[in-house]
Amino acid sequence: MTDKKKMWEFPWRYKESIAIITGIIIIGFILQLLIGKFNFLLFSSPVNLIVGGIIILFLILFSFARKNAIYHWFSGVPFAVSLIGGLLILGIVMGLTPQLLRVDPHDSSALTRLGFRQITSSWAFVLVYFLTLLSLGALIVRRLIAFKIKDYAFYFNHIGLWIILFAAGLGTADIKRYVMYVYEGEVEWRVYNDNGDVLELPVAIQLNDFVMEEYPPKLAIIDRNTGETLPISKPDYFQIDEKRPSGKLYEWNISIEEYIHEAIRNSDSTYYHMPMPGSSPAARVRAERNGNISEGWVCGGSMSQLYMTLPLDSQHCVVMTQAEPKRFMSDITVITEHEDDVNAQVEVNKPLKIGDWMIYQYGYNTQAGKASTYSSFELVYDPWLWPVYIGIILFALGSVCLLWSGNKKTKKEDDVE
């Protein structure tokens, strides 16, 4: 009968790996309490390139000890699985805890002090991330030294994953984000940094036109004295829909006799269609309750014209809510130093990529709505985007190759049987 392997006796397996990762995470929490979150800006270029070179040099030198038990454990499956488990636990914490871009310096709650509000900047995450980078790199180097062409799927998969981890982590410090406000017909290339200083970017934007599409607004009944929407406990709204022009609103039967989405006041009590800045939705409404009928125009108003309500009695009236944006888009021309001018339409979830810059539709003058004279854009500079793409392609290619080789092996086994 053989003796049971003792803890910390080589070769190390899962128990030792889990204990070490747990200790690393605890050390991370202690560092978080003592010195605060990790500052990734310390790795701004060229520091991240130097650190990357040091990591690669370390992995090459470390490979000379590949026959050592420590090296086999460090580049082995138990340690890799434990690292993934540590990242998974921190990821679950990140999913369960609201993540903040900026933390209130006066917030002294336990979750904030331990870094749970900004997991990716916490020392626990950073330490596990760097260990994962080193462990995966050690495994890749070990397999490359014993290179076999039949392991091509492994090389694609693991090298792609290592590039993704490296570029997404150390490349974070080089990402720059700015918000640029551009007025229609004007060209803008200046932004403000966090300190309020004016910066001139190598990218300029000319706003040719700002276009907004809106949903039809809603009708509501309010108390004329308090302005509260009724019923107070659960306000009722009637969605204007030309396919369903009538329905129930609070205690009244409502029907839409006429609806104009872009309306301008024609007189004190009527409207006509006129698509122009300042126009707003208007509807001729008929309301009936217990034989009492009220009919007239209702308008939500805009910055250019007043709203209009329909009185029902001495206490109640019908009002129209502001139309909610359905889609807003900016027709722009992007001017750069080294490329031809680019004409494009940018909208939410449809950004424009120019070189290392991504241009996103960010906002507009919400008070003016579709009559907004300016549009705001978020410009993101990410020089590490292409390495991430390369890593994703290699990783995906390796995964497909692993599936293909696994399926091929299964077919051979079936043929043997």
SSE layout and pairings?
Blueprint: H1 14-35, H2 47-62, H3 69-74, H4 77-96, H5 110-113, H6 123-145, H7 152-170, E1 176-183, E2 187-192, E3 198-214, E4 218-223, E5 237-239, E6 246-249, E7 252-265, E8 271-273, E9 280-289, E10 292-299, E11 310-311, E12 316-320, E13 325-336, E14 342-347, E15 352-354, E16 357-364, E17 374-381, H8 385-416
Antiparallel strand pairs: 1-17, 2-3, 3-13, 4-5, 4-12, 6-7, 7-8, 7-9, 9-10, 11-12, 13-14, 15-16, 16-17
Helix pairs in contact: 1-4, 1-6, 2-6, 4-6, 6-7, 7-8
Provide keyphrases for this structure.
disordered C terminus; 417 residues; single chain; alpha+beta; elongated; 29% strand; 4-stranded antiparallel beta sheet; 5-stranded antiparallel beta sheet; 17 strands
Overview of this structure, please?
- It is a single chain.
- With 417 residues, the chain is of the alpha+beta class.
- It has eight helices and 17 strands.
- The strands form four sheets. Strands 6, 7, 8, 9 and 10 form a five-stranded antiparallel β-sheet that branches. Strands 1-17-16-15 form a four-stranded antiparallel β-sheet, with no helix packed on it.
- Helix 1 crosses helix 6, helix 6 packs antiparallel against helix 7 and helix 7 runs antiparallel to helix 8.
- It starts with 13 loop residues before the first helix and ends with a helix.
- The C terminus is likely disordered.
* Class inferred from helices and paired strands: alpha+beta
Write down the secondary-structure element order. HHHHHHHEEEEEEEEEEEEEEEEEH
Number of strands: 17
Query: Mean of residue pLDDT?
Result: 89
Helix segment tally: 8
